[in-house]
Amino acid sequence: MDTEAHNGTWIGIGSAFLVVGGGALVSLGIWAQSTPSPHLWLNRWFDLLMFALSAVTVIGGYAVLSPLHGLSMPRLKGKPTSTLSQPGDVDLDRTYLAGLFKEHTEVQVQKLIANYLGKWTQFSGSLGQVTAGNFNKSLSHVTFEGPLRNPFPSMNFRGEQWADRLSIMRRGTPITVRGRITEITNFSITLDDCELVN
Predict the structure, then answer these.
(1) Where are the alpha helices (DSSP H) in the chain?
(2) 191 close to 180: Cβ distance less than 8 angstroms
(3) What SS3 state is found at 64?
(4) Residue of 191, 63, 182 lying closest to 125 (CA atoms)
(5) Which of 6, 65, 94, 178 is 20 to 30 A from 71, alpha carbon to alpha carbon?
(6) Distances (CA, A) of 130 to 108, 109, 152, 163
(7) What are the pLDDT digits (tens) for 44-78?
(8) Residue 112 CA from chain centroid, whole number
C-alpha cells in the first residue's frame, strides 16, 4: 500500500471513529443532563461508557490529524498491487494469471504469457525480505511481506546503488518496484533490472 493510500485509509478510519465516538458522546451527555436521576453520573458503568467513547473520539482525532502532520501511524499491510505509471508498461492481473495455470497445460500457458515477457510492469507493497546474490553482491533479491497469493512478485535489483539503498530500508516500508518481466510461473512473476519508483 503506497503512502497516499495509507494516509487516506487512516483518515477514513479516524473520521469514522470521530463521528461514532463524538456523536455518541454528545448524545449520551445530552441524555444524561435531561435525566431526572442525579445518581446516573455516579454510576460506574456510565463512567466506563463515557471513558470508552472519549477514547474512541481521541483515537479518531489522532488518526485524522497524524497523516496530515506527518506523524507516524501503524503500517497497514497492503497486498502487492500492479500499478502503472510509465507508457508501455503492462498491467499484470495475478488472478487472471493464476487462472491460466489452472485451466491450461504448461505448453498452452507459455504461449499465452509470451507477450508479457520482456515488458515492464510495476508492483506496490510492503518490503518483506532483501537478500544479496551468492556470487554477485551487487545483485539484491527482494520480496514483499506476506501473506502473498500466487503468482507473487520476485524482484531482482542490479547495481551497488540499489544494494546500498535496499540495505538500509526497514521491513514493512511501502515500496513501488518497476521491473522487466523475465519469467512467469504458477508460483511467481520474476522481474529483473528493477528500480524503486518511490
Answers:
(1) 3-17, 23-34, 44-68, 94-103, 106-113, 160-167
(2) yes
(3) helix
(4) 191
(5) 178
(6) 33, 30, 15, 9
(7) 776 777 778 788 788 877 776 766 555 555 544 44
(8) 30
**Architecture of the domain delimited by 81-196:** Beta Barrel (2.40)
Name the grid cell of 100: 491460466
Q: Return the SS3 of 22.
A: helix
Q: Which three cell numbers stand for residue 51?
A: 471513558
Name the H helices within 122-159: none
Q: What is the pLDDT of residue 2?
A: 44
The three-state secondary structure class of 149 is coil
Does residue 30 contact residue 22 with C-beta atoms inside 8 Å?
Answer: no
120 touches 176 (CB < 8 A): no
The residues near 155 (Cβ < 8 Å, ≥ 6 apart) are: 123, 141, 142, 143, 177, 179, 190, 191, 194
Domain locations along the chain: 3-68, 81-196
The three cell numbers locating residue 175: 515500496
Q: What is the Cα–Cα distance from 162 to 192, expressed in whole angstroms?
A: 13
SS3 (DSSP) at 34: helix
Cell of 186: 504458477
* Residue of 84 and 105 predicted with greater confidence: 105
